Amino acid sequence: MALMLAGISMLAVILALFWLMDRIQSPLLYRIAYSGLIARLAVLGAAFVILGLLLVVAGFIDRWS
Known about the structure:
Structural class: mainly alpha
Largest sheet: none
Order of helices and strands: HHH
Strand content: under 5%
């Protein structure tokens, strides 16, 4: 569950960065938002969400069997 919540929070921070970039229109935020690091963090956050979801589903299956 913690892994899934960590992934969701990472993706929420990245979405907030893009929203803030559009609102403020700062060149520094543009460079940060479109950097390779943010892209890697987005992939990592999505992987955390998927793995966390699989762990939650596996926990439910263990309880039912």
